[in-house]
Amino acid sequence: MWSLMFKDEISYEFSWNWLTGNIPTELTRLKFLAVLNLSQNVLVGPIPQGLQFNTFANDSYVGNLDLCGLPLSKQCGMSGSSHVPQPSESYFFSGFTWESVVIGYNCGLVVGTIVWSLMFKYRKPKWFVEYLV
Q1: pTM reported for the whole predicted model
Q2: Residue 40 domain-assigned (yes or no)
Q3: I want to staple 35 with a disulfide (CB 3.0 to 4.6 A). Which of 11, 93, 117, 133 is the partner?
């Protein structure tokens, strides 16, 4: 979180913090709040209305798939929530599936077999022959 002060106004940056739940309505009482960026979190429910919250643009809420109400076009009360990623998922592991493990294993098996056969075709390692015999 960081804040900047300009003529008694404060800007808060809370994007990409895995914040969950509803936006507290108590934040609408903050008269000095100039900018509030809550984008790319896991927030749900209606966006509070009042004072400074009425001045925030859509960019403040981008990436929160289950937020609704103004200034967003998604109306509250509609059934069916979107997929919400779990906070334990990281960027690296989000695309790491069993298919990628199988592909990596098979590629390693093919390369290892080729290297193994070339090694014995051109020169048998002395340590290996002594170990087996």
Answers
A1: 0.50
A2: yes
A3: 11
Residue 55 inside a domain? The answer is: yes
**Cβ neighbours of residue 43 closer than 8 Å, sequence gap 6 or more:** 19, 20, 21, 22, 23, 61, 64, 66, 67
Q: What's the rounded Cα separation, in Å, for the pair 56 and 34? A: 8
Per-residue pLDDT, 31: 80
Counting the structural domains of the chain, the total is 2
CA–CA separation, 8 and 131 (whole Å)? 79
Q: Is 36 exposed, middle or buried (0-12, 13-18, 19+ CB in 10 A)?
A: buried
Q: Are residues 63 and 23 located together in one domain of the fold?
A: yes
Residue range of the domain that includes 123: 98-132
Task: Assess if residue 91 is contained within a domain.
Answer: no
* 3-state DSSP percent of the chain in helix, strand and coil, to 5: 35, 20, 45
Per-residue pLDDT, averaged over 71-75, amounts to 82
